[in-house]
Write a structure and sequence with these properties.
This protein is mostly helical. Helices cover 81% and strands 0% of the residues.
Length: 318
């Protein structure tokens, strides 16, 4: 009888501990996609100081993808040829063009400015989705968000980027191109209806993108004049941070959150990441936070919130 009582009491004892563990996991996961992803812009800036940009992105995604793929294989997850083919396309849009342009641009573009331009992605996703579906469903909230977002991006390009010189302006255009490419990848991945474990699909896309980045980096001659001995300690630490925390930890947390919470709640990281990036750029890299930057930040974040809310109102039953 005593052993039976102990067995009955065990779940009651373990329940609070399990709740604390789950609460800690939720808090850690949201902090990961809020703070870690917001900090990756500064880490990229430090990494590309002494490592060629496409090699930086390629090495980052190669190691991160290998770690995630090993994890998937240990869990006996096996890719199909359809998943591999789709991962090559997604890897092109997400990582070759999306991250390749971002890493290249941050040789001259401040990390805070880059994060604000990237934050416009939800607007591009909505526009591209409407174009692909050949169906325009609008409401006042969506229209306001689109115009406010383009106004914020225009203010950034016309004042912060153009006034900082041609290198920053061209780099900013490259960041916008990367944001547009990433949005194309999102629309493609949604319309492809590809089934499979999200972590496995992420690993395959990372690996496909990394191979393309390393090949293109070599084709454009990034190996010329590059040696591992010339890489600074700060760049090595930044690259390690991007691999372990930016790609593995935060990406795993992101996938875990999507399995347990609504995409709308998880997508709130798009509001927080630019604030974190601008703040860290100001604190650690001496990036100027002018009135124009603050106004653009408010406009872009407000636009993303309006677009998200407007798209939610278009959903059936809302």
């Amino acid at each position: 009888m005593k052993s039976a009582a102990v067995i009955q009491e065990a779940p009651a004892i373990l329940a609070p501990a399990r709740q604390r563990l789950n609460r800690a996991a939720v808090i850690f996961s949201f902090l990961s996609i809020y703070v870690i992803w917001g900090s990756t812009y500064l880490a990229i800036r430090y990494a590309v100081e002494t490592i060629p940009p496409l090699y930086t992105a390629g090495i980052r995604h190669l190691l991160a993808g290998t770690i995630l793929l090993a994890w998937c294989l240990a869990r006996r997850l096996r890719p199909t040829w359809a998943q591999i083919r789709a991962s090559i396309i997604i890897g092109t849009f997400f990582f070759l063009i999306g991250h390749g342009t971002l890493h290249w641009a941050e040789q001259s573009v401040p990390s805070g400015l880059a994060s604000l331009l990237i934050a416009s992605e939800p607007i591009w996703v909505f526009l591209l989705t409407a174009i692909a579906a050949r169906q325009w469903r609008l409401n006042a909230t969506l229209v306001a968000g689109i115009f406010l977002g383009f106004g914020g991006v225009g203010l950034l390009m016309g004042r912060s980027a153009l006034n900082s010189g041609p290198a920053v302006f061209v780099g900013s255009l490259a960041v916008v191109l990367g944001a547009l490419s990433w949005s194309v990848g999102i629309v493609y991945s949604r319309r492809s209806h590809l089934s499979g474990h999200p972590l496995l699909l992420s690993a395959l896309s990372l690996l496909a993108g990394s191979v393309q980045l390393l090949l293109v980096g070599s084709a454009v001659g990034e190996y010329r004049g590059f040696s591992f001995a010339s890489v600074s300690l700060r760049s090595w630490l930044a690259l390690g941070y991007l691999i372990l925390f930016g790609s593995v930890v935060a990406f795993t947390a992101y996938n875990w959150l999507l399995e347990h919470y609504s995409p709308t709640l998880v997508a709130t990281h798009t509001y927080v990441n630019p604030i974190v990036a601008v703040l860290l750029g100001w604190l650690f890299a001496g990036e100027a936070v002018t009135l124009n930057v603050l106004l653009s930040t408010a406009m872009v974040i407000g636009a993303v919130m309006l677009v998200d809310r407007g798209m939610a109102r278009l959903q059936p039953g809302s």
